[in-house]
UniProtKB/TrEMBL annotation:
Top EC class for this record: oxidoreductase
Keyword Oxidoreductase: yes
Annotated ranges, domain FAD dependent oxidoreductase: 7-342
Single GO biological process annotation from the record: thiamine diphosphate biosynthetic process
Annotated SUPFAM superfamilies: FAD-linked reductases, C-terminal domain, FAD/NAD(P)-binding domain
Organism: Chamaesiphon polymorphus CCALA 037
Pfam families tied to this protein: DAO
GO CC term (a single one): cytoplasm
Protein name: glycine oxidase
Domain of life from the UniProt record: Bacteria
Catalytic reactions of this protein: glycine + O2 + H2O = glyoxylate + H2O2 + NH4(+)
GO molecular function, one term: glycine oxidase activity
Keywords: Oxidoreductase, Thiamine biosynthesis
EC number(s) recorded for this UniProt protein: 1.4.3.19
Length: 363
């Protein structure tokens, strides 16, 4: 594409914002259409960067996640330098305690093998763990980013580089002519551009026929009392078998998350919050003494195979960047890079091949 080419990004979450920034830096004229900035899935995430702790199977998805994790330090530095807003990036490492394993089951030939800690070692390494913890893996290369701070940083950066951000604009239909998007129908009238990128997460199926459904996740946070913040009880993420616990440097501790196939049902529920509290106190009992700070919920965009949908669509001028499920924050840097290169340079990285929408077509 040529400098000044008009591109519309549909969706104002981390994926949409980051992709818009990359394209703007390449010279595109970019407009971001956002239905409701506050409802973006990233606001409800925990911000873990945990491809190994999540035990993602070897293959295309793990390759994509590791590539994105490796991009994070430099990418975050770029975004923060543009925005002047700290994102809370913290390569604190992730500890994955186990209630069922007392010995490492992994082969020592595994190139991604983490350090195994037996029962005495893991309790020495992290005091306060529940008595049921028998061992666990330590992943020093992993970490976290403060999802809400990242959203603020991306939002400011997008405007700083000259992207046009339109909040409150809902795309209600996509109109096609001869295999191309002709225009978008919105609550503010028709909008058109040379190219379009769909990054609407859990709402994507409302615009095009791809198999993405919302998976509701409830979360909560507690806060460490101010007098204890000089010596936080947690200095690393706990990725348990039932729960994850993510300490923030400002004294908040994030607990998540339920996984519910209930469509777009809103609100926290007593059952959901009870599940989070029970599992969190089993893994890390000191949390029971921390004041409850906040509860919230969000919707992850889930595909049948729980892998994202990335790359070209059936329309020549519509590109897809959606369906990231529980890895949207982790995959933001690599998605932005790959999609920007595909749209601007017409270069499809080999990493994209496994994530085409066509994998869901009938044989």
């Amino acid at each position: 594409m040529q400098p000044g080419s008009e591109i519309i990004v549909i969706g104002g979450g981390t994926i949409g914002l980051a992709t818009a920034i990359e394209l703007r830096l390449l010279g595109a004229a970019v407009t971001i259409l956002c239905k409701d900035f506050k409802s973006a899935a990233a606001h409800a995430a925990a911000g873990m960067l945990a491809p190994q702790a999540e035990r993602i199977e070897p293959g295309a998805m793990l390759d994509l996640c590791l590539a994105s994790r490796d991009l994070y330090p430099e990418w975050i530095g770029k975004i923060e330098s543009i925005s002047g807003v700290d994102s809370g990036y913290w390569p604190c490492g992730i500890l994955a305690p186990s209630y069922t394993q007392s010995e490492s089951p992994r082969s020592t030939t595994d190139p991604l093998a983490a350090e195994w800690l037996d029962t005495p070692s893991i309790h020495r390494y992290q005091s306060g763990l529940g008595e049921s913890v028998l061992g666990g893996y330590w992943y020093p290369a992993e970490g976290q980013v403060d999802n809400r701070a990242l959203m603020r940083s991306l939002y400011v950066a997008a405007q700083a580089v000259g992207a046009n951000f339109l909040d409150g604009v809902e795309v209600t239909n996509i109109h096609y002519t001869r295999g191309r998007v002709r225009y978008l129908e919105t609550n503010r009238g028709q909008i058109s551009a040379q190219h379009y990128i769909l990054a609407t997460g859990a709402w994507s199926q409302q615009l095009i026929p791809i198999p993405i459904v919302p998976r509701k996740g409830q979360m909560l946070s507690v806060v460490v009392p101010p007098q204890q913040r000089d010596n936080l009880p947690l200095q690393r993420v706990l990725f348990g078998e039932e729960i994850y616990i993510v300490p923030r440097q400002d004294g908040r501790i994030i607990v998540g998350a339920t996984s519910e196939d209930v469509g777009f049902a809103p609100h926290n529920t007593l059952q959901g919050v009870k599940q989070l509290m029970t599992n969190a106190m089993r893994l890390f009992p000191p949390l029971q003494n921390c004041p409850l700070h906040e509860t919230w919920w969000g919707y992850r965009p889930a595909t049948p195979d729980e892998l994202p949908i990335l790359g070209r669509s059936s329309a020549a001028n519509l590109t897809l960047a959606t369906g990231h499920y529980r890895n949207g924050i982790l995959l933001t840097p690599i998605t932005a890079k790959l999609i920007a290169d595909l749209v601007w340079h017409k270069q499809a990285d080999n990493l994209l091949a496994a994530f085409s929408w066509q994998r869901f077509e009938p044989c």
